[in-house]
């Protein structure tokens, strides 16, 4: 009777000798067999069973991979982009790259290429576009920001840092990769800036900001230019000898039309993307610059509210941080 080990199942013992086993393997006529044939058959059977299991697992893995690929392709065709979550190591690396500091508030200005991000950052910092020697961001009619650029606030009284993010919608970075490619997940606040149209790129940025619980501000830039264009479309000509009252009337009508159309456009786009309604701030660089430099304000639309809301967001964060510590 075979011995039983404690808590071990009963298991067969194969009794064999080398010469008979050699005869079985070499297909000779074996002599004096006991369990040689049974052992060899069991070993071969076990190997075949394990191989069949591996093949089945591999087949299932291929099916799962193909299904995932087909699902990803389907989502891409439907405009649904994959969700990519950065690792803790990636977050730390980006924070080092942007020189993130807990005692500062980090604003990133992002959006489609050519939207006026650099000019707006200059205005926020109280600098003219031509003040490059004083640290102003470079501007131009084409996309001038090729890399994420850090700009400390000109007034040290305000612990803010501004980041000029390269324009989205270029061949270098597809829309859905824009947020992660530039590490926007590390910033304290993101200004989504657009000029002509509120696009799917802007929606993608807002969607990712919601995932990471980052406050966002939708801003339409170059309001003064757009209002002038509407005035021209309605027949205004700066060379005509029109009275100041006529000019003011045309300006006010164009201004109201521009504001109304902008707010409705953003509202419709957010609704179509199944996103909650959100205010859009309509600004121009010159009024913003005048506001920051405490000059007499002219033709202001949302510049005061935007600046106040940004300052409030920064102060609220600092208050929460000090309370938590």
In short:
This protein has 10 helices and 6 strands. It has 325 residues and is an alpha/beta fold. It folds into 2 domains: 15-80; 103-324, Rossmann fold, CATH 3.40.50.300.
Any key phrases for this structure?
325 residues, alpha/beta, Rossmann fold, 2 domains, six-stranded mixed β-sheet, 10 helices, elongated, Interferon-inducible GTPase-domain-containing protein
Q: How many structural domains can be distinguished in the coordinates?
A: 2
Give me the number of helical elements: 10
- In round numbers, the mean pLDDT is 83
The fold-level CATH name of the largest domain is Rossmann fold
**Total strand count, please?**
6
Radius of gyration using CA atoms only: 34 Å
Principal-axes shape call: elongated
Protein name: Interferon-inducible GTPase-domain-containing protein
GO molecular function: GTP binding
Family: Belongs to the TRAFAC class dynamin-like GTPase superfamily. IRG family.
Domain IRG-type G: 103-303
What would you note in describing this structure?
The protein has 325 residues and is α/β, with parallel strands linked by helices. It has two domains: 15-80; 103-324, Rossmann fold (3-Layer(aba) Sandwich). Helices cover 47% and strands 9% of the residues. The protein has helices spanning 18-25, 36-77, 88-97, 117-124, 178-181, 200-211, 223-233, 244-272, 285-292, 303-324, and strands spanning 105-111, 149-152, 160-164, 189-194, 216-220, 280-282. A six-stranded mixed β-sheet has the order 2-3-1-4-5-6, sandwiched between helices. A hairpin with a 7-residue loop joins strand 2 and strand 3. InterPro entries: G_IRG_dom, Immunity-related_GTPase-like, P-loop_NTPase. Residues 103-303 form the IRG-type G domain. One of its GO terms (molecular function) is GTP binding. Pfam families: IIGP.
